[in-house]
Design a protein that fits this description.
Number of strands: 11
Structural class: alpha+beta
CATH architecture of the largest domain: 2-Layer Sandwich
Number of helices: 10
Shape: globular
Length: about 325
């Protein structure tokens, strides 16, 4: 193993949009702004432990086995062959994004944890090879090891998940002018619950349309064909079910499209919505119109406007 670093290491992992309309569990991308910070440090106490979590309102478990960051870090430590019983490792987590928002909160914790611990141990793994450990953390959040959020948070940019376990992820091209508007209504939807309401079977007709949309979206990304991207951002299967849980969904989507969005759908399991557009000004205008819908029904919200984050997770210097 490479030489261990004795000073604490802090890593940041960004929020993500999963599914991207038509790509349930196989497409995702990272954004700028919200995300999670995890600091890993050596401890005199043996074992892995989570020392603190802030920004979660005291709701997330400190137990390693029940925490996404803890599970992911535990998997990495075991694979690295580090003797956690000789010198312990502790994690401190700072949540800088809302819980249950559909923006990959659990994935951001998992990814930031493995990046920080990997750096603390002297980088025994490349960044890309951290993905299987981060996927392990998703078991605590949704009960299934899916890779769409964690891959986007770790690698950055647009990603396609060919296989979840073991993870087989492909980085996709991101057009230069693509911008994202995200609106997060002040309600919470747990991923585990939102998966329970999904239909177990879909018609062949809808499946064929969905396959075509996924292929069209990927082709649109690679050719910077914004018209094709817009024509492909349609979800035939998941959105009609999950949108029923989101107040004002239809009105917000209509407002986004009428303002000039290429497309608009649910981010992850919701309640956040995302809309893609071709400029920062247009993305801001879309956000204002979507926000006006929630203002009218009296629901608070957070609004984020961002280009696609192509860098992904990184080690940060908090003193700089």
């Amino acid at each position: 193993m490479a030489n261990q670093k004795k000073s604490p290491v802090t890593a940041f992992a960004p929020a993500t949009v999963a599914n991207v309309g038509c790509g349930f569990d196989v497409l995702g991308f990272a954004i700028h702004g919200p995300g999670d910070l995890v600091t890993a440090s050596f401890s005199d106490k043996p074992g892995l432990r989570i020392a603190s979590i802030s920004g979660d309102g005291g709701r997330l478990p400190l137990e390693v086995e029940n925490n996404t960051a803890g599970l992911a870090a535990k998997a990495l430590i075991k694979a690295a062959g580090y003797d956690i019983h000789a010198d312990g490792i502790e994690l401190s987590i700072v949540k800088k994004m809302p819980l249950g928002s559909g923006l990959g909160s659990s994935a951001a914790s998992s990814v930031a944890a493995v990046v920080a611990v990997n750096e603390l141990l002297g980088t025994p793994f490349s960044k890309e090879n951290l993905l299987p450990f981060a996927v392990e953390g998703e078991i605590a959040a949704s009960g299934t090891p899916h890779a769409d959020n964690v891959a986007a948070a770790l690698i950055g940019g647009f990603i396609l998940v060919k296989n979840h376990l073991p993870p087989d992820v492909i980085s996709l091209y991101t057009p230069e002018d693509l911008h994202c508007t995200i609106i997060h209504p002040a309600i919470e939807i747990q991923t585990k619950n939102s998966r329970k309401i999904l239909k177990k079977q879909v018609s062949l007709e809808k499946a064929v349309k969905q396959w075509g949309n996924v292929g069209g979206l990927i082709a649109g990304l690679y050719t910077s064909d914004y018209n094709l991207i817009g024509r492909s951002l349609h979800d035939e299967i998941i959105e009609p079910v999950r949108s029923l849980l989101i107040p004002g969904f239809n009105e917000m989507k209509k407002a986004a499209l009428e303002t000039g969005a290429l497309g608009c759908s649910i981010s992850g399991s919701g309640p956040s919505l995302f809309a893609l557009s071709t400029s920062e000004q247009l993305a801001n205008d879309i956000g204002k119109q979507m926000g006006a819908v929630l203002d009218e029904i009296g629901l608070d919200y957070d609004l984020f406007v961002s280009k696609v984050n192509v860098e992904g997770a990184c080690v940060v210097n908090l003193e700089s």
